Amino acid sequence: MTVTVERRGRAAGKLPLAGRPRRPRDSYALFLLPGVLAFLAIVVLPFAMNTYVSFTDWEGVGSPEWSGLANYRELMDDSEFWASFRHSMFMVVAMAVVPTALGLVLAAALFDYVGRHFGSKVVAVLRACFYLPQVLPIAVAGIVWSWILAPDNGSLNELLGAVGLSSWQQDWLGDPDLALYSVMGVMVWVQLGFPLVVFMAGLQRVDPQLHEAAELDGAGWWRRFWHITLPQIRPETYVVLTWCSIAALKVFGAVYVLTKGGPGGATNVPSYFSFTTFFEKTQVGYGAAISTVLTVIILALSLLGLKLQTRAEEAS
Questions:
Q1: Which of 28, 76, 232, 251 could disulfide-link 206, Cβ–Cβ 3.0 to 4.6 Å?
Q2: What pTM did the predictor assign?
């Protein structure tokens, strides 16, 4: 009896590999394979082809001629490229810095004040209203704003005239000194909803007992917000800043619809500069070099943002 049980135990312990139940982790690669193939086909391969073209002198027809680093040397001395990159820094302010600050204040106001006094339904409606520009097609939003900012019969100029501020009427998108700031204002409106939603989600995980203890100790709203809320939602802050900065660096649709880089290049940004160089001037190699540099900058910014976010999550 004992010998039989022992033999059965040994037999069970020495099942062949094919007869053992397959562990779930052995099939993980099968689930990852479609995503990996799509990433290679949609991201890696086009970027590799674009990088190759950036080392050539090509007008889009015929065979590309290898030119080495000529396009990049020309790019470093191109004042138009550096001007477009400076405009991108303004876009980072309009699409990352300002929406992050405003979104944080609005999220705290909705969460701490509106939610307590008017209920969660009012908060949900207001949150949806702020987020609505994010889901609107940028072409539709751009056309509407071009009507609002039109110099003749535009809604903004008509409103200024109606309230007795006719001297403030401007050609908002046609004046080189105002066009960039007008586009920045539109992009603040477009981008504000994203930080608001992310911060409201982050505020829900802040321990309310910390606020109650600080309030019992006499801390006001601002001190509680600065010393308790902000440190707790630091990971969300890095996510918002990174995501919005990337969106600002690659902004294209709004510039194309509102100003087409004008007037006189006053609103030109690297993505639109690459587009016009590539398709309108048919300097394909040079346009590919612009987009390659922009891609490398975005990748570096993404890695920096991920590193800061990971460090913030570990600290919290």
A1: 232
A2: 0.84
Q: Which residues, other chains included, contact 107 with Cβ-Cβ below 8 Å and sequence gap of 6+? A: 195, 196, 199, 200, 203
112-161 residue pLDDT tens: 888 888 888 999 999 999 999 999 999 999 999 999 999 888 999 999 99
225: tokens are 């917000």
The span from the CA of 267 to the CA of 279, in Å, is: 19
Q: Using an 8 Å Cβ cutoff, are 291 and 46 in contact?
A: no
Cα of first residue to Cα of last residue in the chain, in angstroms, is 60
CA distance 134 to 95: 12
The number of CA neighbours under 13 Å toward the Cβ of 155 is: 6
261 CB-contact burial (10 Å; exposed 0-12 / middle 13-18 / buried 19+): buried
**For residue 5, is pLDDT > 80?**
no
